Protein: Ig-like domain-containing protein
Organism: Muntiacus muntjak
Amino acid sequence: MIRTFFLLFSLLALPPRLKEMKSQESVAGSKLVLRCETSSEYSSLKFKWFKNGSELSRKNKPQNIKIQKRPGKSELRISKASLADSGEYMCKVISKLGNDSASANITIVESNVFCSVKTEYVCIISITVQGKRKRTLYCGYNLSLSQTISS
């Protein structure tokens, strides 16, 4: 009976299939999350992450990348993204029933903030002295500031 149940379970169990991951574009300094999810109920799933074909392990992954694993899914979190984080990321799920993979491209662009402030002050002073001609005095200054900030 147990052997029949195991055989039947093995025939009905399907290999894990990953949901599609979406490519993302973000500015330098931002946070990103890639989610690798499967609908499989199989408990012994192993997830691996790759960047441009190289596995991201504890020894060779950048400090700003964290990998979290939960039942049925894994998340790759990038904090303070830099241009070096751009690339193709692939998640691979491995089980006794089979393997699957999904990939997405991450593009990080420079953030340029341009600030421009232009201020003009103009004052008009009109003085009339009794018995004298009317005098008008103009004064003012023009201040213009602009700065480009790159992060």
